[in-house]
Amino acid sequence: MRLRESLWLCGALCACAHLPQLREAADPLTAEEHYRLGAAYDAQGLLDDAARQYRAAAALNPADPETWVALGNIAFGRGELSRAEDDYLRALKTAPANAGAQNNLAMAYLGQGKKLEEAERLARAALSQDGPLQPYILDTLARIYERERRFPEARAAAVEAAAAATARGVTLLAPDTKEGQARYGRPEP
After folding, report:
1. Which of the following CATH numbers is that of domain 29-96: 3.30.420.110, 1.25.40.10, 3.40.50.150, 2.30.130.110?
2. N or C, fewer C-beta in 10 Å, the chain?
3. CA distance 167 to 159
4. What is each CA distance from 22 to 39, 56, 111, in whole angstroms?
5. Closest CA to 73 of 34, 107, 33
6. What pLDDT, in 10s, does the model give residues 114-141?
7. Which residues contact 102 (CB under 8 A, 6 or more apart)?
8. pLDDT tens sequence across 40-65
9. Helix, strand, or coil here: 45?
10. Using CB atoms within 10 A of its CB, is residue 13 exposed (0-12), middle (13-18) or buried (19+)?
């Protein structure tokens, strides 16, 4: 009897070896779909969900600079300036002339109070592209000049930023508002 039970058990175990194995399902979304979903979450203020989708997009397509800019923007908004810096650098590694990444990296440096010469160089490079970000880039330059106590240049850049914003129908954030402080950091006394 023991032989029969042993053979039955052996046969049963061998049959189990051929059962289908569970595998992790492949991600059904493309990098672009993850990015769009992240942008939708971002627009609703669901930043954890947005960041998760942007990271999934970056994993599928690490060469997309806009995904890295979006991740950097979330980190920047959370005050994680070092992480934002890393994300913007990743964007610039894939697209060295990306004006958004250049300007935002300049803002990350400014927020950390470091590499202000590099921040100015980045902002000027972004500004030379004469794109829709012009008001924001001029505003960044004004803040860099202000931090460096180059007040005449800061005033000129601020006036130019305001004119460019008006011409494009956009509103720049004032640094003394809650939204402005979230974007630019607390003003120095």
Report:
1. 1.25.40.10
2. C
3. 12
4. 32, 22, 48
5. 107
6. 999 999 999 999 999 888 899 999 999 9
7. 92, 122, 123, 125, 126
8. 999 999 999 999 999 999 999 999 99
9. coil
10. exposed
Written as one letter, the residue type at 56 is A
Q: What single letter denotes the amino acid at residue 38?
A: G
Per the CB < 8 A criterion, the answer to whether 37 and 53 are in contact is yes
Q: What is the pLDDT of residues 69-96, one digit of tens each?
A: 999 999 999 999 999 999 999 999 999 9
Of 17, 58, 14, which Cα lies nearest the Cα of 38? 58
Contact assessment for residue 128 and residue 147, using Cβ atoms and an 8 Å cutoff:
no
Is the separation of the CB atoms in 12 and 39 below 8 Å? no
What pTM was computed for the model? 0.77
* Ranges of CATH 1.25.40.10 domains, the chain: 29-96
